[in-house]
């Protein structure tokens, strides 16, 4: 009797995968050896955007400022050919192949979804679609999701990453949490034996790179932001950014009697209480959102409405208003810091000669390499304050998360943006506007790593897949050097480093670069240190295309083997080719389940 999809994929991964049965249906007793499946075969980008309210070319101190659908690909997936279906049934009912002792030993090493018994490698997780849970708090296309999770498990993936949207769960009223879709989705992950990285997404979805849907902040939060627009980040031209509540309000009771940090803490506590039976087993990591796109940064380069375009330097986000005390809003904090430094004239506003969103460093008095304000006494003061209050914001939320999830067995992680453009310039302008005080003369990532280390958390970094030569060199992009710097900073701070790819990539060059970066062979003395995990962006139409899927399976297997493996990626890909040929009918059958 032919095995059903769950049995087929279970056979391939070397582990039985639970399957739903119809009423009265009995599970099949048919089995097959995983060794019969996984057997090696023989043998110039400058923007032309208008200079919006450009400031006069003066050095600092500052002048007075001027006032859905990710599932659509399923419709076009090819239908399983009849001959493949017959071959699938024949394979499923055939006897296990005889193997040599050496082959048996090699197979025994891979017993759980392509993972070694003695774990030494980098676990691979896959990001789920942003709209995995619908506005109606249900799993978006449950049948499609179930089949996709089968396929990921068969490839040896460790688990998945899920955005838990504040704007969906607590949408209608403060403290009214609807976990409906997430309860179902997390149960599905558990059924398939997949681990979960749950992202506490306290930001808006929409307006950033790769955002394919729109999920605003909770309705009641937006209402408060409309009443007091200074709850939003503000640039020097008075433009508000509503992706994330400004850190200037962290401790103010501005959200229906609660502060933003209290709201985040209550949300995480409610999540823990609702999913405590999964914590430490299925849910193994909580990534805590701390800014736009879930990253610890300012919204300095918003793509929404074409405000910013790569590789512009972005803009500072600290021009709200002065409140009645130091704890109110960002300019109040700046004013207090300036007075403490004996320079009260520096506290009225941020820089106003730092260009606009799409400027380049040398176009601005503040960021230019020779005599720029960034390297002045004022620049050092302002940038130290701007970066420090961002770190303090992260620490407030991380402290809360650590308290909430104490003794649950889950890791806590913080995501930091990989801002690689203009990295080769002296000022590192794009990093400075985002809140990372990183220049040619100062390490801006070590203080962040040290903050993360204080709470035993994981430092998660992006742009791991990028090579320097692939990026525009006139913008002095240097992602490889940036990743190296972050690797050294996390090593010094003794904090685990995890990675993500910043953009969807399915080519061997990107996979090779991820393998290289994840090995953390940075300074010749990394020894056994590797990234603690890698999260692949993202489960989407392209991932399941035959060539991409073949390369992905080989990539996952190579990541699982670890950096001490002596086998080249090409050899692993040859094994993957055999694996893909066998599993293609199963993946196609899963694809059929995705169709309406």
UniProtKB/TrEMBL annotation:
Short name of any one Pfam family annotated for the protein: Glyco_hydro_14
Record Gene3D superfamilies: Glycosidases
E.C. code: 3.2.1.2
GO MF entry, a single one: beta-amylase activity
Keyword Hydrolase: yes
Keywords: Carbohydrate metabolism, Glycosidase, Hydrolase, Polysaccharide degradation
Residue numbers binding substrate: 163, 203, 211, 415, 420, 462, 501-502, 538
Keyword Ribosomal protein appears in the UniProt entry: no
Enzyme class (EC, first level): hydrolase
Biased composition (Polar residues): 45-54
Alphabetized PANTHER family for the sequence: BETA-AMYLASE 1, CHLOROPLASTIC
Gene Ontology process terms (BP): polysaccharide catabolic process
Full protein name: Beta-amylase
């Amino acid at each position: 009797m032919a095995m059903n999809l769950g049995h087929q994929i279970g056979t391939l991964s070397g582990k039985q995968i639970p399957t739903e049965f119809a009423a009265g249906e009995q599970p099949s007793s048919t089995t097959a050896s995983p060794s019969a499946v996984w057997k090696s075969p023989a043998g110039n980008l400058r923007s032309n955007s208008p200079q919006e309210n450009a400031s006069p070319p003066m050095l600092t101190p500052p002048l007075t400022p001027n006032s859905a659908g990710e599932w659509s690909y399923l419709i076009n997936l090819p239908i399983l050919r009849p001959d493949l279906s017959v071959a699938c049934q024949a394979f499923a009912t055939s006897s296990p192949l005889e193997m040599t002792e050496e082959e048996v030993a090699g197979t025994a090493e891979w017993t759980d979804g392509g993972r070694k018994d003695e774990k030494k490698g980098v676990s691979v997780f896959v990001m789920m679609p942003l709209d995995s849970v619908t506005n109606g708090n249900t799993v978006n296309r449950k049948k499609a999701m179930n089949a996709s999770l089968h396929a990921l498990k068969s490839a040896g993936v460790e688990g998945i990453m899920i955005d838990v949207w504040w704007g969906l769960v607590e949408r209608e009223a403060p403290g009214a949490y609807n976990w409906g879709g997430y309860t179902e989705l997390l149960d599905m992950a558990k059924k398939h034996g997949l681990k979960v990285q749950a992202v506490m997404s306290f930001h808006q979805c929409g307006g950033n790179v790769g955002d394919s849907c729109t999920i605003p902040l909770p309705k009641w939060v937006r209402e408060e932001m409309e009443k007091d627009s200074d709850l939003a980040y503000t640039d020097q031209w008075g433009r508000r950014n509503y992706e994330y509540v400004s850190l200037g309000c962290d401790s103010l009771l501005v959200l229906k009697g609660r502060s933003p940090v209290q709201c985040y803490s209550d949300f995480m506590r409610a999540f823990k209480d609702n999913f405590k039976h999964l914590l430490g087993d299925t849910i193994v990591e909580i990534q805590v959102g701390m800014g736009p796109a879930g990253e610890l940064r300012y919204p300095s380069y918003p793509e929404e409405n074409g405000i910013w375009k790569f590789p512009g330097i972005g803009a500072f986000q600290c021009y709200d208003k002065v409140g009645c005390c130091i704890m109110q809003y960002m300019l109040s904090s700046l004013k207090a810091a300036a007075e403490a430094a004996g320079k009260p004239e520096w506290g009225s506003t941020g820089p106003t000669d730092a260009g606009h969103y799409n400027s380049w460093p040398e176009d601005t008095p503040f960021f230019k390499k020779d005599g720029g304000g960034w390297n002045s006494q004022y620049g050092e003061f302002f940038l130290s304050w701007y970066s420090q209050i961002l770190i303090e914001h992260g620490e407030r939320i991380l402290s809360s998360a650590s308290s909430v999830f104490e003794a649950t067995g889950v890791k806590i992680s913080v995501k930091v943006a990989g801002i690689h453009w203009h990295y080769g310039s002296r000022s590192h302008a794009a990093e400075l506007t985002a809140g990372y005080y990183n220049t040619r003369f100062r390490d801006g990532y070590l203080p962040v790593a040290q903050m993360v280390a204080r709470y035993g958390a994981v430092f998660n970094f992006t742009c791991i897949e990028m090579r320097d030569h692939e990026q525009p060199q006139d913008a002095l992009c240097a992602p490889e050097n940036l990743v190296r710097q972050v690797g050294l900073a996390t090593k010094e701070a003794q904090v685990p480093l995890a990675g993500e790819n910043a953009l969807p990539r399915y080519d061997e060059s990107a996979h090779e670069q991820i393998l290289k970066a994840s090995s953390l062979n940075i300074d010749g003395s990394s020894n056994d240190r590797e990234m603690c995990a890698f999260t692949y962006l993202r489960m989407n139409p392209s991932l399941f295309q035959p060539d991409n899927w073949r390369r992905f399976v080989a990539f996952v297997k190579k990541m699982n083997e670890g950096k001490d493996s002596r086998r080249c990626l090409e050899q692993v890909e040859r094994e993957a080719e055999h694996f893909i040929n066998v599993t293609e009918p199963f993946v196609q059958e899963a694809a059929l389940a995705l169709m309406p």
